[in-house]
Amino acid sequence: MKKMISVAALVLCFAAAACKEENTTASTSADDRLGAKLQAYVVCINRIDSTFRTKYPSYREFFDLQLEALNPKPASNDPTERMAQIRKQYPKIGRDTYRRGAGFKIAVFETNNEFTRGCADGLKKAVADAPADADLDRIGAVYAETLTKLIPIMNAADSYYKQEDDRDDHMVKGKAFDTELAPLFTTLLAAGDEMRSVVANRKEALQVRRLDELEKTKGKTFEWQAENAMLQARHAVDGVREALDSEPPSTEKVLANEQKLQAAYDAAKAYGDAHQDEKTSRGNKPTWFYLESNVSNVLTQIKDLRRKLTASNGDSAKSKAGQNSTEDLGRSFDRIISDYNSLVEQYNRFANIH
């Protein structure tokens, strides 16, 4: 499964949660209210939805192992297939993997689904909050409702497998749990896909207006440089994805997105180099200094993918031999997303240090 893109927390100078001390009075602007509303969605995407996109496939593999262990196939003479069969004859292997992942818990120390319930409750509140947004409210309600339905079933399944009750009833309850879990997770993950798209759209619009406001009121200072680098990084990741999805994959489109991000990085770095001693109002280093290496890493991975794509397009023998294949480019794009997600985590950690 391809890595999912994280979402940067919303940091708006006119948003109460992120304003400087002198601007913490309540705002009635539409952007302020939308920014506050979107925060609940961002938390759910980054913590809950991203986690379940790893946990659910692990559960499916574990579930299939338990079923196949009940009806093992005749031994094969093929060594590779034989090893696979041996593994499936010992469901304890899959069980230990399931346990290490702590089942459906978001974190191993979670005791009462506090993260999952917090996501659902946060979305329900956000849906009810102004401003009304038909697409955002609809998908938020679907996600919250589905998640709420899943919680008791996930808890029951976790308890069932943790106590190894499937060995006593030969997966009777396990199969019953799965008939409920499978369709709910299908709905949840589909809703998550749409939620990511809608939130990214709304967030980008806010970011663009935020940049315009910063440039008008303060100029292209550190704050503007950091926000611009984040926006261009997201544009670059989305643009590279589109370039790879085209037929054939477009080196020119990858290069165009690379150059835009390079320009944003160069501008921010030049500004930082010229203002090394500048501090925020709280005496901290500006956010850009915490992001610089992460933005550079994203650029490095995009350039690596572009070089592979160029080599593949220019050498048919390499393509025929399987070098720089679709799978290889896919792995390169996964590394881009991984570095971009690290950038987002860094941004979310330091964006409010003004």
Number of structural domains: 2
**Spans of at least 5 consecutive residues with low confidence:** 9-28, 316-323
Helix-strand topology string: HHHHHHHHHHHH
How many strand units? 0
Span of the ends, CA to CA: 38 Å
Structural class estimated from helices and strands: mainly alpha
Helix content: over 70%
Q: What is the beta-strand fraction?
A: under 5%
Given the structure, what is the number of helices? 12
Summed over residues and divided by their number, the pLDDT gives a mean of 84
Gyration radius, to the nearest Å?
24 Å
> What's the shape?
globular
Oligomer: single chain
- What does the largest sheet look like? none
Task: Write structural notes for this entry.
This protein has 354 residues and is mostly helical. The protein folds into 2 domains: 1-217, no CATH class; 219-354, Up-down Bundle (Four Helix Bundle (Hemerythrin (Met), subunit A)). It contains 12 helices and no strands. α5 (134-162) runs antiparallel to α7 (172-217). The model is unreliable at 9-28 and 316-323 (pLDDT under 50).
Keywords:
354 residues, 2 domains, Four Helix Bundle (Hemerythrin (Met), subunit A), mainly alpha, single chain
